[in-house]
Amino acid sequence: MAGIYIHIPFCKQACHYCDFHFSTSVKYKNEIIQAIQSEVELRKDYLSGASISSIYFGGGTPSLLSAKEINRIIDQVYLIHPVENDIEITLEANPDDLTKGKISELRTTPVNRFSIGIQSFFEEDLKWMNRAHNAQEAESSIKRAQDAGFNNITCDLIYGYPLLSEAKWTNNINKMIEFEVPHLSAYSMTVEPQTALGAFIRKGKQQPMNEGQSADQFILLMQKMQENGYEQYEISNFARDKNYSQHNTSYWKGIPYIGIGPSAHSFNGVERQWNVANNMKYLESISTDQVPAEKELLSLSDQFNEYIMTSLRTKWGVDYAYLEKRFPSDFLTEINEPLQSYIARGKVQKSEKHYILTDEGKLIADQIAADLFIT
Ligand code: SF4
After folding, report:
1. Location of each CATH 3.80.30.20 domain in the chain
2. Which of 24, 26, 61, 185 to mutate to test the pocket of ligand 1 (most atoms within 8 A of CB)?
3. What is the pLDDT of residues 23-72, one digit of tens each?
4. I want to staple 157 with a disulfide (CB 3.0 to 4.6 A). Which of 7, 114, 134, 186 is the partner?
5. What single-letter DSSP state applies at residue 138?
């Protein structure tokens, strides 16, 4: 079992908060698709023959690709790798791309899940973020996808930014519940220094994010999703009726994945690899049959820390039996004291042999994980 991530490095315009790799020029789109197909072949042995259970088109904006271009990439994956029958194929899509015509075109592909970047249903918020879509498209894209029979939909929302009052945040969450989307991902706005938002804050044109507001809105999110039958199966991810993201769940469970395309990351259990985040360098290198990537061999403590960081964020928590089986006993001795302290303070709870964050613990998940890291 393994996953494939395909990075499509193009966007119509740059959202002010975004630090992902993309180009706003699609001049080399065809060349990049060709190079992605080549990279799938060049790296055919990376997953040691494991069958593919998920393909995830991320970016950038994969919905800028035509159905034909998406099919070219998927066909190549099917040609090179064994693929599971119930494979999940997700396409990240921006609301302005999901026109009626585009959605029916996408019905001709094996894509069976949309991840729609809604972010907000408010016009002024979308403008503030410099999103390419408007509030009306935010709503109509979900409805159109559902009407066309795409029921496996996840939507993204952002909270914790100055324009977002409690009333607006409540409205955004309620809309998702009304649309009965089976899956929601919600992220607190983070400010990366090299983004437009980072520059606005440095120049005093924009007030910084407020941690207290973010925490309050996260608490509201957890309450409302729970009240409406959604399970918080990962800190930022909510699903109804166990509509978990197969792809992301694989990440969190440490299942190997290969990342194809500029800036894409890969992981095979013991090694991380990341491709160059530059479209031209990527094209040049792939044209000489070289994958332009850096690698890092993960030490045992890196693997331990990685497991703690990802598993702690999920509803399944840290599996103590797995830690005992996989890592030296002194690692477990080292984390015992901080772990017991967090349990005593009600931030972590023990269920049989699993350690799981409480709602209070979810507010400081990164800090708890860092305190459990082996140095
Ligand atoms: S559409 Fe997505 S990838 Fe593109 S700039 Fe906006 S947030 Fe970044």
Report:
1. 2-252
2. 61
3. 999 999 999 999 999 999 999 999 999 999 999 999 999 999 999 999 99
4. 186
5. H
115 Cβ inside 6 Å of ligand 1: no
Closest protein CA for atom 2 of ligand 1: 60
Nearest to 73 by CA among 57, 59, 87, 90: 57
Kind plus residue range of the DSSP H or E element containing 276: none
Mean per-residue pLDDT for 158-167?
Answer: 98
Protein residue closest via CA to atom 8 of ligand 1: 18
Instruction: Give the CATH H-level superfamily of domain 2-252.
Output: tm_1862 like domain (3.80.30.20)
Other beta carbons within 10 angstroms of residue 77's beta carbon come to: 21
Q: What is the 3-state secondary structure (H, E, C) of 322-372?
A: HHHHHCCHHHHHHHHHHHHHHHHCCCEEEECCEEEECHHHHCCHHHHHHHC
95 lines ligand 1 (CB under 6 A): no
Across 113-117, 211-215, 252-256, least confident range: 252-256
Start-end of CATH 1.10.10.920 domains in the chain: 300-371
- Structure-token pair, residue 344: 């005593």
Q: Does domain 300-371 have CATH number 1.20.1440.230?
A: no
Query: Average pLDDT of the chain?
Result: 97
Q: What is residue 161's three-state secondary structure?
A: coil
Q: Hey, what are 343's tokens? A: 């349990």
Distance 238 CA to ligand 1 centre (A): 22
- Indicate the pLDDT class of residue 352, thresholds 50, 70 and 90: confident
d(CA 3, CA 21): 20
Look-up of token digits 């009333």: 167
State if residue 11 touches ligand 1 by the CB under 6 angstroms criterion: yes
* Half-sphere exposure for 20 (CA within 13 Å, toward CB): 20
Nearest CA to ligand 1 atom 3: 60
Is the pLDDT at 353 greater than 90? The verdict is no
